[in-house]
């Protein structure tokens, strides 16, 4: 399938660039697992029966960079990330959008990107990114593709450039293996909900890609637990808050998102046990829902 081929190709290009032209045309779905073993990048694995994920969202590094307030906020974010990584020792970090306030960054956006990653590098904790609606607004090396390619230069990055024919860039999935086995025991799915220099939306093609990827992985890996992450939630998330007993608080109204069928599709995927988003800074809640 083109899905796993594109996914495997990303890892191949990053780890053995000198041979990519030789083998690019023969990548296919059947070689995805093999690529994880053959390439120097270590597969993501459970440890002691657990795989703990820390989510950092809407950090907005670079906001008001030429005022006293902006750099202080960035240092505060540094402190928070260091504190969380020290206290929780997660296996993995998900950055779920608006890592940068690109529209406030006059200098090189990739310099801020590296600044954000400093706590991850110091704690030797791998990560992956999905894009939000502010990340790609810098005019200097700040577009989605440039930022993703730069992120992928770090050995601890598991971010993947999604299929070229899909809207956005950060559409991909990551298998998580057993601690001492070749068996995939969980999957992380990521979608690009757009914004910034592109429209805020999750397209029908992205939703179809998610379902197709899910079905392929279900056949290949079995019914393993999975999570889905993207930046901008659909309005059904607020409706859910008002229908069931939730933990946390909702202070921002969730605006319409062009994502027809996304919520219904999520509910139709029985092994997706968690959906996590960002975008609304004053919302911090978790709601249960029945499949």
Task: Please sum up the structure shown.
It is built from nine helices and ten strands.
Overview of this protein structure:
By secondary structure, the protein is an alpha/beta fold. It is 34% helix and 15% strand. Helix 1 runs parallel beside helix 3 (32-38), helix 4 (69-88) runs parallel beside helix 5 and helix 5 runs parallel beside helix 6 (144-151). The chain starts with a helix and ends in a 5-residue tail after the last strand. Mean pLDDT is 85; it is low at 1-5 and 11-40.
Name a few traits of the molecule.
single chain; 291 residues; alpha/beta; five-stranded mixed β-sheet; three-stranded parallel β-sheet; 9 helices; disordered N terminus
Task: Present the secondary structure layout.
Layout: H1 2-15, H2 20-23, H3 32-38, E1 44-45, E2 53-56, H4 69-88, E3 92-96, H5 109-123, E4 127-130, H6 144-151, E5 172-177, E6 184-190, H7 204-221, E7 226-229, H8 236-241, E8 247-250, H9 262-267, E9 272-276, E10 283-286
Parallel strand pairs: 1-5, 2-3, 3-4, 6-7, 7-9
Antiparallel strand pairs: 5-6, 8-10
Helix pairs in contact: 1-3, 4-5, 5-6
